[in-house]
Amino acid sequence: MASHTIFSIFSFLLGLVLGSFANVCIYRLPLGKSIVSPPSSCPHCGSQIRFYDNIPVLSYIFLKGKCRQCKAPISLQYPIVELIVGILSLALFTRYGVSYQYILYLIFTGSLVIITFIDLHHKVIPDIISLPGIIIGFLASFLLPYPTWLDSAIGIVAGGGALLLIAVIFEKVTGKEGMGGGDIKLLAMIGAWMGWKALPFVVLISSILGIIIGGGALVASGKGMRVKIPFGPFLAMGSLIYFFFGSSIVGWYASLFV
Ligand SMILES: [Zn+2]
Fold first, then answer.
1. 114 alpha carbon to ligand 1 midpoint, in Å?
2. Which stretch of DSSP H or E encloses residue 230?
3. Which neighbouring-strand residues pair with 73?
4. What is the 127 CA–ligand 1 centroid distance (Å)?
5. Which of 49, 98, 148, 200 is the most buried (most CB within 10 A)?
6. What single string gives the DSSP state of each residue in 12-50?
7. What is the DSSP letter of 66?
């Protein structure tokens, strides 16, 4: 029992560190920079960030959200991403324990977090994450209890195909490009990891979130339909919600008809 608690704390700390790495990916991948070198530096003054100023969450608090050298504000996004990945890691560990499921799903959910924040900033989902994500998800299906490799393969085709179909119809009807190719590859990746049966729920949850949050953001911005809202973050959130709460949601829905 005590050792389990220690492992749980360790999984949370590991998540924080991986979240720190996720921040590097979010910042550098869209710029085409290496994620391994050079070491992190302040985007404002360029001074290298020392290891003791690079401790997840804590450094942000100690430095009061400012660069030690130039006092330029550090984005609150850094500790937020670290906390999100920390919590995901803890949740996955609680569900799967020390296992390859824990590691594989950490890769999957971590990728979703990186994709979310890159899409929010740049309105693009980098192929360098989604395409390997499709392949790794398919290969993982041979190890994971679910989905089967066939469900995963159908998930890739259905995920890619379903959004492609929606995108084509949307474009035909409105004459505008609604969904980017990035979203299509992302849903193919989600299909690879979660299997095709998860897709209708993921798309439904994502659309509801998109209407509520995206619609709210549109109204708040006052710019109406001229603002382009990225759909990737909603697909990622929808996947995470279904991944962690799917069986409860489906159970609740089924109970309405009993
Ligand atoms: Zn600085």
1. 24
2. none
3. 66
4. 31
5. 49
6. HHHHHHHHHHHHHHHHHGGGT--SSSS--B-TTT-PBPP
7. B
- Among residues 117, 125, 122, 106, the alpha carbon closest in space to that of 179 is found at 125
171 neighbors 199 (Cβ within 8 angstroms): no
Measure 76 CA to ligand 1 centroid, in angstroms.
15
Where would I find the H helices in 47-176?
A: 58-62, 77-96, 100-122, 127-140, 149-174
Tokens of residue 18, six digits: 């991986």
| Burial class (CB within 10 angstroms; exposed 0-12, middle 13-18, buried 19+) of 102 | middle
Q: Check if the beta carbon of residue 19 is closer than 8 Å to that of residue 83.
A: yes
Task: State in Å, rounded, how far the first CA of the chain is from the last one.
Answer: 39
Other Cβ atoms less than 10 A from the Cβ of 206: the count is: 24
Give the model confidence (pLDDT) of 81-111 as tens digits: 999 999 999 999 999 999 999 999 999 999 9
The residue among 22 and 181 whose pLDDT is bigger is 22
Under DSSP, the state recorded for 1 is -
Q: Where are the domains of the chain?
A: 1-97, 99-258
Both tokens of residue 219?
A: 């109204």
Can you give the pTM of this predicted structure?
A: 0.90
- Taking a 5 Å cut-off on Cβ, the residues next to ion ligand 1 are 42, 44-45, 67, 69-70, 72
Phi, psi at 66, each rounded to 5°: -130, 150
